[in-house]
Please model this.
Amino acid sequence: MFLLGTNDHESVMNEEWLMQMLSSPWILAGGAFSLGFIAFWLLQACGLFLPKQAELVRVAGTEGFDPVHGQKLDALAAEIEKAKVMLEEQQADHEVNEEILDELDGAVKRANGRLKLILNRLNS
Model:
């Protein structure tokens, strides 16, 4: 390729550099990212990408209502209530288990004391 003011050797070097740059996957990835970034900002500036807050208010009928996050918050609140009920049930079960373990511990200690008395009488 002949460029004005350059010799053939320099133009060949420039073409090789250009071909190496264009064959790199990083250049394609950077170009795709840049194109997506520009497209996002253009769509957002035109109002085509994200609904405006006024539209959300108009749809919901109440100010500041976000239908997507509102549903998620309701679902989270229901899950928290279920978790609280389960925790209370487990605590009640643990209290019953503690009472049973205390009774069992007392019985084992009494039996151990009786065995020590029997061993002392047998050894003496």
The mean pLDDT is 77.
